[in-house]
Design goal:
The chain is an alpha/beta fold. It is built from eight helices and seven strands; from the N terminus they run H-H-E-E-E-H-H-E-H-E-H-H-E-H-E.
Length: 240
């Protein structure tokens, strides 16, 4: 993830101010009349396995938006090379989105299901929200509280997902539509090397991952840690 969030100092200074709309939305703000035309997205890693979903939801497997070998093991990832874990090249990524029925002008509401891995579910949902913003989708929302908040508000759920309806065009003048939300490794190196006060590096992993004590990723070295001068650690459960 840090590779995607990370040129020269002039490049950093000249980057346009990000015009990102309000993302987090509550159940109360999602009215029944907005259902038509909105794409409801449950995201995860691998095949879907929840017992209930928001009505008319499609499923997005994040593994299919990034470069991964099969099976995902440390040895296979080492052979796969430096592209491992990075998002697909633009044309392939756009094809994936169109197959899911996603267009630049179609509102997308992303949510999580409650499970034994709520934190990881939220990380994946935030990753998808970022990806859709990067690609240029004009209105992307993350449902605050996920499906649990939806049910607490008395909203209905269903046991099945729906098949996506592909679209022929993604739309927009260029793809990706918001390339400025993706920093480069060189930019992060510049922020770290010059201690730039105009930028802040934020690590949202667990404390064990941040300190390099341990992690559960089979495709990475056992020892880890954080990028120098990372200012904050924000466990995802404290954000949403």
């Amino acid at each position: 993830m840090l590779r995607s969030l990370v040129g020269s100092e002039m490049c950093i200074r000249d980057r346009p101010r990000l015009a990102i709309p309000r993302i987090i939305t509550s159940v109360g703000e999602l009215h029944p009349e907005m259902a038509e035309g909105t794409l409801w997205i449950c995201c995860g890693w691998g095949a879907p396995g929840a017992e209930r979903y928001l009505p008319n939801s499609v499923y997005v497997d994040l593994e299919h938006t990034e470069e991964w070998p099969t099976p995902i093991t440390r040895e296979a990832c080492m052979q796969h090379g430096p592209k491992t874990g990075l998002i697909h090249a633009p044309e392939r990524l756009k094809d994936r989105l169109q197959a899911l029925g996603i267009r630049v002008d179609r509102r997308c509401v992303v949510y999580t299901v409650d499970s034994d891995t709520v934190d990881m579910q939220l990380v994946m949902a935030c990753s998808l929200v970022w990806l859709l913003l990067f690609c240029g989708v004009e209105q992307v929302n993350l449902l605050d509280g996920g499906i649990a908040a939806w049910e607490e508000a008395g909203r209905p759920t269903v046991p099945d997902l729906v098949a996506p309806t592909p679209v022929d065009e993604f739309g927009g003048d260029a793809f990706p539509g918001r390339p400025e939300v993706r920093a480069t490794t060189e930019m992060v190196e510049m922020v770290v090397g010059r201690h730039l006060q105009t930028h802040r590096l934020v690590d949202v992993r667990s404390w064990s991952e941040y300190t390099g004590f341990s992690h559960d990723y089979c495709y990475m070295d056992p020892e880890g840690g954080a990028v120098s001068y990372t200012h904050l650690t924000l466990p995802t459960k404290r954000i949403v």
